[in-house]
């Protein structure tokens, strides 16, 4: 299979780095400066524009190819996908990245006979905003995901020095029935905990469980009696900031403030949102003090400028705001943000890139969530019809670096025990490290 990437840029570079080891990768771009980082990679360069007929015809796109349009221009991506569909063989699959809501709603494929015929439209900003809103709602949590209609939750916490978990093994942690420790992050490395795994200060641990027992456990161990977020401040009134505010503005009892540096934009936002919209710079200490931002339970900084996000977040940290969630536009900066103590540093592209990669490798598998900037993921896999009778959850132990976090079917939605049987048609939510993902997909293939 050949992966044809339409347009250079940061997303294209991420794809090229990740995919070139396993596939033949072609990058379409005509700007020499944009192409420079690609020269060190094992990829083919097609000089030209991904919307030009001659360029696409020269590639002789086949039904086995996958076409990924991910330039910085929504319009170019849409036109490139349409042109590739028209000029390539029937069966060519196209992915189109967009940054604007109107394009996402207009061009995402609703039916098989959709006139625009773009197979998969991806809107990274929407994924980012949804993820931030989930994390903002839970006190102390640094990652939150909901699965199976809210019946299964995933929550990540950092273990403080005074945590009751310090020095205990997994079997001594008092985990309720139907709650699992599915990942441990220590010194930047992700592993799957075992029964004798020790919890140390500074580690991060990810739990998956049925909603009620996991919520009760989290409140008793990590939230220290605080069950609700009451005040959230959002810095940045762009697409992501407004979407985060829209997600949170109707939460009962939540006081929401949004800070935007452009006065005209403030007026536009005020007409869209039912919250306090403040005109000013999110890194202006006098503004933050005047508006009593220090009383916020959560501060979310989501401007398009990493330096502004970092400065605003550091000021918030000095002011004692308990949780800080920061957008990192350049993924190479994530380590810097975490190194200076930012609680949650999120890049908009990581999840979107991983979604495409999984669809390329395993059409029957899908990424539900990425963890730790792609170092691990929650993969949904359907148990095949020819699955051997009597095979149990614990049989997946043969795949190091993976654990079944939940089993979902029409009959049951559970966090399993090792002796639970797996049946054809079950949907497994598997937490797997980056190195184990391919093995998991192959195991159920």
The number of E-state strands comes to 22
N- to C-terminal separation? 17 Å
Tell me the quaternary state.
single chain
Query: Treating each run of at least 4 consecutive H or I residues as one helix, how many helices?
Result: 14
Largest sheet: 6 strands, parallel
> Over the alpha carbons, how many angstroms does the gyration radius reach?
23 Å
Strand content: 25-35%
Mean pLDDT: 90
Q: Low-confidence parts lasting 5 or more residues at pLDDT below 50?
A: none
Helix content: 25-40%
Category from helices, strands and their pairing: alpha/beta
Tell me the overall shape.
Answer: globular
The neighbouring-strand order within the major sheet is 3-2-1-4-5-6
Commentary on this structure:
By secondary structure, the chain is of the alpha/beta class. The chain has 14 helices and 22 strands. It has helices spanning 10-19, 32-35, 53-59, 74-87, 101-107, 124-137, 211-223, 239-248, 263-272, 285-290, 306-318, 334-339, 348-361, 434-443; strands at 2-6, 24-28, 44-46, 66-69, 93-97, 120-122, 143-147, 152-158, 179-186, 189-191, 204-210, 231-235, 255-260, 276-279, 298-301, 323-327, 344-346, 365-371, 376-382, 402-408, 413-414, 427-433. It has a six-stranded parallel β-sheet, sandwiched between helices. Helix 12 links the parallel strand 16 and strand 17. Helix 6 crosses helix 8 and helix 6 (124-137) crosses helix 13. The two termini are 17 Å apart. The mean pLDDT is 90.
Top keywords for this entry?
445 residues, six-stranded parallel sheet, alpha/beta, 14 helices
Give a brief rundown of this model.
By secondary structure, the chain is of the alpha/beta class.
């Amino acid at each position: 299979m050949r992966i044809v990437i339409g347009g250079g840029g940061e997303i294209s570079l991420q794809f090229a780095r990740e995919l070139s080891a396993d596939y033949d990768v072609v990058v379409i771009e005509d700007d020499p400066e944009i192409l420079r980082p690609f020269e060190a990679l094992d990829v083919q360069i097609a000089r030209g524009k991904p919307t030009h007929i001659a360029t696409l015809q020269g590639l002789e796109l086949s039904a086995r190819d996958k076409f990924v349009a991910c330039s910085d221009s929504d319009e170019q991506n849409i036109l490139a996908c349409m042109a590739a569909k028209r000029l390539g063989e029937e069966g060519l699959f196209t992915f189109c990245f967009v940054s604007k809501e109107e394009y996402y709603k207009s061009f995402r494929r609703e039916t098989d006979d959709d006139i625009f015929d773009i197979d998969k439209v991806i809107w990274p900003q929407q994924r980012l905003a949804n993820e931030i809103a989930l994390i903002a709602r839970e006190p102390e949590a640094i990652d939150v995901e909901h699965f199976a209609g809210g019946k299964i939750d995933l929550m990540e916490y950092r273990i403080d020095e005074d945590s009751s978990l310090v020095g205990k093994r997994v079997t001594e942690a008092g985990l309720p029935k139907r709650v699992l420790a599915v990942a441990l992050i220590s010194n930047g490395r992700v592993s799957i905990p075992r029964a004798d795994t020790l919890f140390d200060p500074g580690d991060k641990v990810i739990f998956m469980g049925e909603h009620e027992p996991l919520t009760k456990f989290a409140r008793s161990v990590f939230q220290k009696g605080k069950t609700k977020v009451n005040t959230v401040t959002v810095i940045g009134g762009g697409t992501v900031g407004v979407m985060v505010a829209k997600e949170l503005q109707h939460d009962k009892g939540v006081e929401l403030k949004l800070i935007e540096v452009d006065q005209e934009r403030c007026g536009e936002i005020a007409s869209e949102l039912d919250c306090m919209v403040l005109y000013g710079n999110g890194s202006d200490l006098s503004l933050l003090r005047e508006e009593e931002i220090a009383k916020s339970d959560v501060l979310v900084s989501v401007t398009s400028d990493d330096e502004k996000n970092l400065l605003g977040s550091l000021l918030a940290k000095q002011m004692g705001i308990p949780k800080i969630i920061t957008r990192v536009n350049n993924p190479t900066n994530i380590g810097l943000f975490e190194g200076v103590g930012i609680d949650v540093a999120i890049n908009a592209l990581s999840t979107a890139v991983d979604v495409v990669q999984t669809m390329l490798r395993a059409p029957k598998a899908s990424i539900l969530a990425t963890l730790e900037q792609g170092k691990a993921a929650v993969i949904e896999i359907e148990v095949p019809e020819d699955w051997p009778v009597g095979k149990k959850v614990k049989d997946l132990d043969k795949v190091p670096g993976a654990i079944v976090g939940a089993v979902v079917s029409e009959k049951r939605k559970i966090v399993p025990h090792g002796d639970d049987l797996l049946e054809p048609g079950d949907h497994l939510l598997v937490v797997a490290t980056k190195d184990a993902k391919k093995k998991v997909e192959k195991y159920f293939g």
